[in-house]
Amino acid sequence: MKPETLALRSTHPTDNNASAVVAPIYLSTTFERNQNYELPHGFLYSRAGNPNRQQLEHALATLEGGTEAMAFASGQAATMSFFQALNPGDHVLVPDDAYYGTPALLQEVFTRWGLTFSKIDSTDPGKIEAAIRPETKVLWLETPSNPLVKVADLTVTAALAKTYGLLTVCDNTWATPLIQRPLDLGCDVVMHSTTKYLSGHSDVLGGALIFKESNELSGRIRQIQTLGGAVASPFDCWLTSRGIKTLAVRIKQQSANAAQLATFLETHAAVERVHYPGLPSHAGYEIAQKQMKLPGAMLSVQVKGGAAEAIQCMQKLQLFTRATSLGGVESLIEHRASVEGPDSLTPANLLRISVGLEHIDDLLNDLTQALG
Ligand SMILES: *Cc1c(COP(=O)(O)O)cnc(C)c1O
Fold it and tell me: Which of 57-66, 156-165, 181-190, 338-347 has the lowest mean pLDDT?
């Protein structure tokens, strides 16, 4: 089946008593044993497993081409559970432009538990190789990246990691499995903040890990999930599954809108630079053409001038909601340097846009008036 069909069929209910076309929400925290004291459906207690979570995990594994998935209460809970499966002394390579929470978890939580990490430029395989140490265990990737929308070559970097015996994890939040499937390109694990495109409506937090193979690592993380309890609730799983049903049409339209906005902005007199992997001027364009089916719906724009000019443009916009996060049906805009604080390396004149499903003409008109 094609991904569009899989997104629908993998979220279709398989087990219910009423022939419902949409899955019921199983709020029950506990599950009855039969007279022989067996668990007829395999569910014991909701922290260990729940029908809504099982269905979402099945859908995520199917869409990413993995054997197994685990759904967590947030993207950060998924990342945290992955790092908890490592051993003290292990070393992790993390992109210098990763989602801020990933290195923040390593720095604030896991260095105290004996993990070490180095930041790398994930678009430069030579620099990745130079940063590998005897104790390096994991190459963490995130492509396209935040906020410069840089593209790392998944095939090349995952192959490099394999020659050194490293695990490769790809945070696929910005692309989604409808755009790229890291497990097909050699990665071992995919991480998602399902809060973003997969659920798609800015109304539910969630995260996931998807595994190419079921092995000791996936078993260990399943154990951490069950014992640690950072699981997604039945309703959150249900909402995320509902979002997945329309992922294909949303991502195609949002990506088409983003491509038009990027082209418009690139030639605008008030714009210094546009970062979007669908533009031939983008450094990652060739790799994006090779590994992404669409360039996605995230772009960044550097307005001519400094922070003041960028913020002024943002303030004039009517249809781009000033809020953090991304991946919902509504367009959002954010001045990243303000959000990231004084240590930010993000250019002061940069605005990050999550392009939504509004009509392209309305979005273009709004940007035209705001850029003046
Ligand atoms: C939002 C985000 C996360 C964190 O996910 P939460 O659901 O907010 O915990 C991780 N990685 C990327 C790329 C994100 O955009």
Answer: 338-347
Does 196 qualify as catalytic in the annotation? Answer: yes
Model confidence over 12-39: pLDDT tens digits?
887 667 889 999 999 999 999 999 999 9
- Give me the amino acid identity at 57: E
| Contact assessment for residue 287 and residue 326, using Cβ atoms and an 8 Å cutoff | no
> 49 in ligand 1 pocket by Cβ < 6 Å?
no
DSSP string, 200-265: -SS----EEEEESS-SHHHHHHHHHHHHH--BPPHHHHHHHHHHHHTHHHHHHHHHHHHHHHHHHH
pLDDT of residue 144: 97
Determine if ligand 1 sits within 6 Å of the CB of residue 192: no
Instruction: Reply yes or no on whether 343 is catalytic.
Output: no
Residue type at 187? C
How far apart CA 298 and CA 353 sit, in angstroms, is 6
Hey, what CATH class is 3-242 in? alpha beta
Q: Is 207 in the pocket of ligand 1 (CB under 6 A)?
A: yes
The arrangement of secondary structure in 248-371, i.e. its CATH architecture, is Alpha-Beta Complex (3.90)
Residue 47 is a catalytic residue: yes
Q: Of the residues 53, 150, 181, 196, which is catalytic?
A: 196
Ligand 1 site, residue 171, Cβ cutoff 6 A: yes
Q: Any idea where the domains of the chain sit in the sequence?
A: 3-242, 248-371
